[in-house]
Write a structure and sequence with these properties.
Blueprint (H helix, E strand, L loop, with lengths): L6 E2 L1 H5 L7 E5 L9 H8 L6 E2 L22 H11 L6 E5 L7 H10 L5 E4 L2 H7 L31 E2 L1 H9 L3 E4 L3 H4 L17 E2 L6 E2 L2 E2 L2 H12 L7 E4 L6 H10 L6 E3 L2 H5 L12
Parallel strand pairs: 1-5, 2-3, 2-4, 4-5, 6-12, 7-8, 7-11, 11-12
Antiparallel strand pairs: 9-10
Helix pairs in contact: 4-9
């Protein structure tokens, strides 16, 4: 059975909710109130959906120096997959409040484990409910039959696509492209609501992830392709590393690039909050 690998439209998903291989994960989260997303899920969610908490499930908050949302270990994410009932053949659908910025994190996590059949619900919860599509307040029930199918001892995240600060410095030194996904005012260092130092990595270019959207939904693949071709020039996707504040919303640009046919870019997992944890690293401001 064919699968969805980047986006799925709400109207299409609504007709497929009874698929036996379908696993839906609610990723709603807000930095201002880390409990709000889970509370919203408990009140109402897509039928059959489980909940993934950004900091408890999609990050390993124990390390220091790896940014505000450190990349989880293989064991941690595999344990979560078992709890959610995700197996190697599952069609996974992830969603958040609307823009896909949090859901894209889980999309990329699964991709780095080699799971292809995972897609973000375009427009998320906001568009789903605007259409009056089915919702539920019942907790998800999974048989948890998949634990043995994902053996953490035999898996490793695709390290080719995951970069730390030293990797990023080497990447820039050899002419690679570093795309910062934060808002322009944060990139320029004019505002910094989350991290202790404002600015950006010298040599980075700015493409706020919000530029991938129009009316709360993703632009067409054709429009995205035109914009990324302009941004990257003669560079290919494999010449690109994306970052943001903590390695979360950068995944939105990775999703948009793949949607546009630019597959193979990497992620700076620590991103800006990881970069500034080393006081010896240079900082730039302005455009």
């Amino acid at each position: 059975m064919a699968g969805w690998t980047t986006l799925v439209q709400a109207e299409t998903l609504a007709m497929a909710l009874s698929r036996a291989d379908l696993v839906v994960i609610d990723c709603r989260f807000t930095l201002l109130d880390p409990n709000a997303g889970e509370q919203a899920y408990q009140s109402s969610h897509l039928p059959g959906a489980s909940y993934a908490h950004l900091e408890r499930d999609l990050s390993d908050m124990t390390p220091s120096g790896d940014g505000r949302h450190p990349w989880p270990s293989v064991k941690q994410i595999v344990d979560r997959l078992a709890r959610w009932g995700i197996g190697p053949t599952s069609q996974v659908i992830v969603y958040d409040d609307g823009d896909g910025a949090i859901a894209a994190r889980l999309w990329f996590l699964l991709r780095m484990l080699g799971h292809e059949k995972v897609a973000v619900l375009d427009g998320g919860w906001a568009y789903w409910t605007a259409l009056g599509l089915p919702v539920s307040s019942s907790p998800a029930t999974t048989a948890a039959l998949f634990r043995a199918q994902y053996d953490a001892s035999k898996l490793a995240f695709d390290s080719v696509h995951l970069f730390d600060g030293d990797d990023v410095e080497a990447h820039l030194h050899t002419g690679g492209v570093l795309v910062d996904s934060r808002a322009a005012v944060r990139f320029r260092g004019e505002e910094e609501p989350l991290d202790r130092i404002a600015g950006h990595v010298p040599g980075a270019v700015n493409r706020p992830y919000s530029q991938n959207l129009v009316g709360g939904r993703f632009k067409s693949p054709m429009q995205l392709a035109e914009e990324f071709r302009t941004l990257l020039g003669a560079n290919s996707a494999t010449d690109v590393v994306v970052m943001c504040g903590s390695g979360v919303t950068a995944c939105h640009n990775l999703l948009a690039m793949e949607r546009a046919g630019f597959k193979g870019a990497g992620l700076y997992t620590g991103s800006w909050s990881g970069w500034i944890s080393d006081v010896s690293r240079p900082i730039a401001t302005g455009a």
